Amino acid sequence: MGAMATDESTPTTSTTDEGSATEEQSLAERGSNRSQRPDSMAFRDFMSQHWAPRDTSLPEENASAPWAKARRERLSEAFAGERLVIPAGDLKVRSNDTDYAFRPHSAFSHMTGTGAKVEPGAVLVLHPLEEGGHEAILYFHPCASRDTDEFFADSRYGEFWVGARPTLEYMQAATGIRTAHIDELGDALAKDAGQVTLRVVREASETVNAQVAEIRSQVGQADSAELDNAFAEALSEARLIKDEWELEQMCLAVDATADGFADMIRSLPRAREHHRGERVLEGAFGARAREEGNDVGYETIAAAGNHANTLHWTDNDGTVRDGDLVLIDAGIEVDSLYTADITRTLPINGRFSPAQRRVYDAVLKACEASLAAAHGRGVKFRDIHAAAMEVIAHELEDMGILPISAGESLQPDSQLHRRWMVHGTSHHLGLDVHDCAQARREMYLDAELQPGMCFTIEPGLYFHEDDLIVPEEYRGIGVRIEDDVYITEDYRAVRMSEDIPRTADEVEAWMAGILDADA
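User: That's the sequence. What structure does it adopt?
Assistant: C-alpha cells below.
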C-alpha cells in the first residue's frame, strides 16, 4: 500500500542511514531522501586520504585562442571604458533534478574559443583598463581539493559525480585568459559601480542577470534592456564574418555530416521495416554526431512522404515506405560548437520516379541559380533568395501549377508561387544553425556579401497531399536541397558541401554504392 500523502504543512521526519530522526524537511530538501551517504568524521577523513597525486601538467594553448583574443580586442574597441559580461549559461532542468546536457551560449564560446569544454556557470568579463582597452577574466568553479566534502559529496561539482574539473591554472593555460574563482565575480562586477557602464548578455544566465540587476539597483541605475540589447546585437554581428579558424571548423562539421548522411542511407533497409522508420534514420545520424562531434546542431528532420511538406517536422515517428521520398535536414555540431546544416531528399528505394525527379530537378535548378547569384562584388544577401524565386516561379509555371504567369507572380503584390515555398532561401551559419540572428537588417538581409560570410542555400518545393491546385502525380512530394556556402577572398561563393551528392543521378549512384556495399 502506498504511503499517505501529506501537504506542505504536515510535520514530517526522515532518518539518516544510521537510523536517527532528523528535523522536519522542506519540500526542496526532500529530494535528498534517497541519499545513503555516511556522514561520520571517520568517513570524511578516510575519503580525503590515500589518493595518488593529481596530474598538474598544463596544456598547450588552444588553437582557437589567438583568434578568440582578436575577437575580444575588436569588441573592446566598440565598448571602450565599459564592463562587458558574457556568461556561458547555467544548467537547465529537464525533469525534477536531472538536467539537459550543457551547451554554452554562443557568444561566450565565440569570445573564449572554448567550445564544449567549459563549466556551466562560467562567466567571461572584459574589465575596462585606465590606460584603455580591457582585461579579460574568466570566472568559473574550479576543481575542488580532495580534503573537502565537495570532492565526493556534491552532485553538482563533485569529482565522484561529474568527473575532475579543470583548475584555474589549467584553464588559463588553455585559453590564454586570466582566470578567477566564480566566488569573486560579484565583487568584480560591483567595482566602480555607477561610474562604469555595465552590459550583460541577458539571455545567457538568470543568475548573472540578477547580480547585474542588483548592482544597477544599488547605484540607482535602471536595469537597462536597451544597453544590453545593443551589446547582444554587437556580439551577433561580430559573427557575420568567419575567420580562418572558424571556416576550418565549419568544413569539419560538413565532413562529419556527410558521414552521417551515409549512415542514414545504410540504415534505410531497417527503416523500411520499422514502424517508426524515420526515427531509425534520426538515430543513425545522432550516433554519428555523438561519436564524431559534440551533438547534433539542431533537431534532425527525417521526413518521409507527405511529412516532408511540414517544414520543421521533428516528430520523426512515421514510416519509411518504398516508393516515397525522405527529406533529411541534419547537421553535426563539432566539439568547437560550429555546426553544419545540410538537406538532401532521397528516394527510399534508391530510384526517383519521373514525377519525383521532375520536382527534384526544379529545386536543383534553383540551387544552382542562387549559387551563381552569390558570386562577385556588390551582391546583397537578399539577391540569393531572389535568384531562387525567379527559378521556382518559372518552374511552377512550366509544370502547370502556377495559376498565373511567372512574371505576374514575381511581382511584389502577388507572390503566388510562395504557396509552395514559404520559407527563405538562406541564413547565416556558424555557432548557431541560424547564426547572427540578432544582427540588424542592414547588416544581414540588406548587406553585401563579404569574404568570410558563411550561409546556406536551401530552396524547396512542397506539394501537400491535399493541395487540390497541384496535379495528382505531384501531391505528397516535398523536396529541399540545402548546401553550406562561404565567400572567398576573391568574392566567389564556394560550396563546403560540394562532395555530398546533389543531382538526381548522383544521389541514385551514391545510394546504390552504399547499399550494394552493405548487401
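Residues 191 and 259 are 50 Å apart (CA to CA).
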